[in-house]
Amino acid sequence: MLADDHNLMRSGLSVLLEQQPDLAVVGEASDGREAVALVKSLKPDVVVMDIGMPNLNGIEAGRRITQDHPQIAIVMLSMHSDESYVLRALKAGAKGYLLKDSAEADLIRAVHAVAEGKSFFSPAVSKVLLDDYVRKLKRSGTEDAYDLLTPREREVLQLVAEGKSNKEVAQLLNLSVYTVETHRSNIMEKLNLRGVPELILYAVRKGIIY
Amino acid sequence: MAKLPEDDLHLQKRVGKLRAMLLLAFGGLLALMVVASLGALHSLRQLDGIERQINQHYSTHNQALTTILISVHVYHDQMERYLLGAEGFKSDVDATDVQNSGTEVHHALQKYPADTQPDEHALLSEIEEKIAEQENSFAVLVSHRPTESRQDRQQSIGEQMMLRRAYILQISREVSSLNQKELMEARQSLVNSFRNVQTRLVSMVALSLLAGLLLSLLGGFYILRLEKQGRVRYQELVASRQELEALSARLVDAQEEERRSISRELHDEVGQTLGALLVDLGQLSKVVPAEDSFLQGQIVRIKSAAETAVKSIRDLALLLRPPMLDDLGLVPALEWQGREISRRGDMEVDVHSEGVSEQLPDDVKVCLYRLVQEALTNAARHSGTKHAKVSIVQNDGMIRARIVDEGIGYSPERVRGMGILGMEERVKRLGGSLSIESTPGKGTTVLAEIRVEHVKPV
Lengths: 210, 458
Description:
The structure holds 2 protein chains of 2 kinds. Helix content of chain A is 57%, strand content 10%. Chain A contains 10 helices and 6 strands. Chain A folds into 2 domains: 2-126, Rossmann fold, CATH 3.40.50; 143-205, Arc Repressor Mutant, subunit A, CATH 1.10.10.10. By secondary structure, chain A is an alpha/beta fold. Chain A has helices at residues 7-18, 32-42, 58-68, 83-91, 103-115, 123-140, 151-161, 166-173, 177-191, 195-205, and strands spanning 2-3, 28-29, 46-50, 73-78, 96-99, 120-121. In chain A, strand 4, helix 4 (83-91) and strand 5 (96-99) form a beta-alpha-beta unit. Chain B is α+β, with helices and mostly antiparallel strands. Chain B folds into 2 domains: 11-224, Up-down Bundle (Four Helix Bundle (Hemerythrin (Met), subunit A)), CATH 1.20.120.1730; 328-451, Histidine kinase-like ATPase, C-terminal domain (Heat Shock Protein 90, 2-Layer Sandwich). Chain B contains 9 helices and 5 strands, in the order H-H-H-H-H-H-H-E-H-E-E-H-E-E. In chain B, helix 2 runs antiparallel to helix 3 (118-143) and helix 4 (151-287) runs antiparallel to helix 5 (293-320). The radius of gyration of chain B is 62 Å and the shape is rod-shaped. The chains are: A alpha/beta, B alpha+beta. The A-B interface holds A 5-6, 8-9, 11-13, 15-16, 51-52, 57, 59, 79-80, 82-85, 87-88, 100-101, 103-105, 131-132, 135-136, 139-140 and B 267-268, 271-273, 275-283, 307, 310-311, 314, 323-324, 326-328, 332-333, 335-336, 339-340, 342-343, 348, 386-387.
């Protein structure tokens, strides 16, 4: 399903998606409120949504949609590559973050990735986040806390950032759920992160996930 | 200076007139008092002179009278002695002596001051007459002296002379009492004149007091009116300042609104259209065969032009009004701003927030956003520091934004540029306060506090 208040953009994206044999656009909304309502009746697998929309913006609409339907994956479309947007989008439950000027190139990949439960970020976004991060580290003179993580913790970090649940991580790594939880809280503490969205953001910055 | 309104000019004219009138009145009062006191002084001096004159008059008359009396006594004394000698005793006085002393009496009488009253004059003449009679009698006596036979007659003449003497003394007493009476009268009239002067002085003083009272009343009234005018002017001033503030507030609002709409227009319409164009171009490049290098090349060029346009439009829109302020709220917008400044320059910005609600009123959001923007821009440009901190905290019904840099600082009084004035204006308009502490060499702290009681912190 597509949600964007610009008809031109929406139709362009729609054409792009319809060309894929395994993708179909089941509905289109022109603002946040409409998107939230439409999701209820259509139950799509993926929602591609613009952040800047009238009535109800994409962030708020995304929050409501993931609250009611956690299984639906959301790809946020935005003109901004700034951390503020990315973090808010993640907090609102988005799995993918796509810049509009690269939408044409990355949309299909993004939709496929989130449909499979993975995260997706426009390469330009990852680059901006990484640049900001590196510059900040350099200027403040602090060491990258990533080096403090054990190899196991790095593995857990990547899997969690990719959107896996504790249970899935435990299965993949042959660990108990309890151990995974311990790793997770250690990672959070070492990296000084609060919540999964910040963890994902960190992973994107570090180039651990794309 | 602005041209005065018509009624203002009129008022000024009236005030000028009133002022002249007051000045005149005060001058008149002063003149009146001076004239009154001079008059009183003059009268007193005159009275003093008159009194002295009266005293002098009395004393000269008295003295002259005494001289007369003495000469009369001497005359009669000599006469007696002469007569006694004539009766057989040896005497040291002869007739010539007696006659001489008679002449003395006349001299004394002639020496009496000329300024005599008619009564006095008559009495003096009488004395003169009696003396003349005495002299005649004496002459008779002297001529008869050798003849003792007429002793009886001589006796009678002597007795007559004695009587006359007594009479002369009587008259001179009368003259004296007349003099005294005259003195008394003159004194009485002096007292009366003094009383007149007193009355005049009292009435003058009363008049001056009355005039003074009137003038004070007038002056008081004038001052009251001036005060009232002053109050009115002050109120007008306050009102016009409020108007000015409201106007500048509207200006700021209008500017913000304008920026927002232009930003939206650019971002939403132009930006999105270009975005759609990019999508379509991507489609097109897929449709066009890869071997057609000319068309593919054209598409790439158009695409890169569109991308450049998208980028500049996005930057422009962000500069005008960051959409995150509307899309995400104050704190994310400030964080973005901090990062943006870090990206562009050498200064790292830390943004710290606590309890800031996302439901802040738009004007507060915009105000704080612009404030931080201005302060950070200043810090990045002038402070020379590599680090600035922004802290934004909401609690106790207040939201406080503090921007601290550890740069070279400046003196706020000196460098109170338009930017800072604009910040102050914005904060004040929302009923907040702004303080800028900057010490050369020790960095700058900008602190804004705005009351937001109706918005709960989170």
